[in-house]
Amino acid sequence: MEIDKKTKLKGDKKTIDxxxxxxxxxxxxxxxxxxxxxAAEISLNIMNTAVNYGQKLYxxxxxxxxxxYNKMASGAYDINVYPQKLTDRDQNRSGVPVSQEPIAFSKIxxxxxxxxxxxxxxxxxxxxxxxxxxxxELWKRNWAMTGGNGxxxxxxxxxxxxxxxxxxxxxxxxxxQVKRNGVDKILFDDVYREPLECTRTWLGIGFxxxxxxxxxxxxxxxxxxxxxxxxxxxxxxxxxxxxxxxxVAVSEEAKDENSEKAHTSVTLGYYENVIMNRYVVVxxxxxxxxxxxxxDGSHGSVVVARCFQKNLNDPxxxxxxxxMRGNTAIYTYINSLNAQQVEAEIFPLLFGAQVQNGTxxxxxxxxxxxxxxxxxxxxxxxxxxxxEAGIAFAGLQKQNIEDNTGINNIVAGAGxxxxxxxTVIMKEAAYNRLTPPKNSMVMGLExxxxxxxxxxxxxxxxxxxxxxxxxxxLAEFTKQNPDYFVESQDVLDDYGIPVKVAVTASRNxxxxxxxxxxxxxxxxxxxxxxxxxxLFDEMRDTGHLSDYIDFVIxxxxxxxxxxxxxxxxxxxxxxxxxxxxxxxxxxxxxxxEAAASQLMALEKLLDIQNGDIxxxxxxxxxxAIIAKQxxxxxxxxxxxxxQRDAQATAMQSMAGGSGxxxxxPMGQQMAGDGTDPMQPQNPNEVPRPQSxxxxxxxxxxxxxxxxx
Length: 708
Known about the structure:
This protein has 708 residues and is an alpha+beta fold.
């Protein structure tokens, strides 16, 4: 036993040394040091709401000039100018307020609100349709469910992505429960998502942008209050573990954020490496876990995305802030300089001393008194500063920011082109500038989906087990957790006497689909309720589990489109859609092939517009038209119409005598090509939208409007 304890202590020391060395290597990388410097600058300048008086936020030091006046023998003055290093030249105590406009922050928020406007959607491919449909519905559910933190993770990840140039989040199963009336009330027990703090997350030193499998090593830290930590790990308060946490339980980064954390918190360090299949959790010198990845699919929990990349070996990327910080600094400097420049020119001349004393040096700046030589007069005050030119130049910096980032007024919704179509085209062009970060997020979300899928298979297919003391507690547990399917069984002692109650709980799911024994998915059925374990048992028993599954994320599913553009586009398309539906159903019995062709054309149109054909045509009718089957209802209606026409013809013949004046009604007459005269005979007869919007759309997207 003593030998085992020594072996464990030796293994713990080896693990701690490994983690410390890994963190040191990651921190001392040239790319990480550059990023840490950038992150420090971002924290000071991205959203600075303070107003500085006479102090600019940039250009803290620089070179200036010192002027010396030397009186010559002739009585004239000789002027010598010498360079001078001004270490704090902006500390001139001017009363002119100076602030920094948060241009970078506003651009980042615009890009975030556009690309993270909605939750992601995906197409799921699997060997079995039932399994693919079930996993798709469960994946969508754990993104949108209350408490799952999905929308919040997406927004904060996109914000970090554009701010720092990269972002990370983790996907893992989490249970949150509280004691209520002596039993556990489950607040959350599902797949959880959580954005990671970039300044407390370090990426592997073997990273290469061109090698996907080099990007699987990560170390990150999270702080936890001491009370929660000791409650979760009671062994940490005993023996050697207590000594291991006494001085090193909080990392230096945590102390830099808040010095009080040295007394109130502990720092948990997490290391994971997918290729090595290793997962380590440490706190100070205490090893909590060191072993294989807990995910059965051998996935890690951390997903990383990058904005733009400028170096194959730089894992941290380039964000919008880094792209625009130079232009932002110039813009801020010019705006502050305009006001200071005027004051610097006028103030010294108006309030200058009437006698010259001291070294006769000249320093230009607000509130600095320039010497006025005896006998000289001030006739004209001429300032060399061109404020309007400065404002115009500052405006150019804003334009350069838009050109560099693609985040312009049209994307922000603050501007538009001449027509709706040109506005849409320009907005689409601006979106294309954001394609690299959007595609990087798509790759991350696909990995997120695979991680979530493996956790779903692990956690949903197994019951949660709770031990209760009595039937009263069982009744209370069932009452406190109405969203769970609860089963119980008595636990007997050696004499067969019940001593406890074992409870198994599985979350109830509400599904809007069902499937047959043959594996056909039935959509639009009444909502059914089934336990999570029951769903997987049902799929397993009917042979619908699949080992292969893949997720293809739709990158446009997260875009937040303009509601006004959606409304006007629908108004323009609605007459076309209704006319097409009328044409399809009128041709269904007379020309089934043409009806099927027209239905496929309508489906293609709706796909382009992100519409659904089943919103306009029922699935039963869709399948029948594609299969070129006639409509029994239409046949019955035609027969009834023919009977009415025949009766009308007979009545006309009787009223008009036996003369040859009888003819077929207009409803029975056919055009020369055999088509119904009530239907459009050529494309020019298909009604077109008559609103000005239709013309605007046609002109903007380049379609000829000659047919109108």
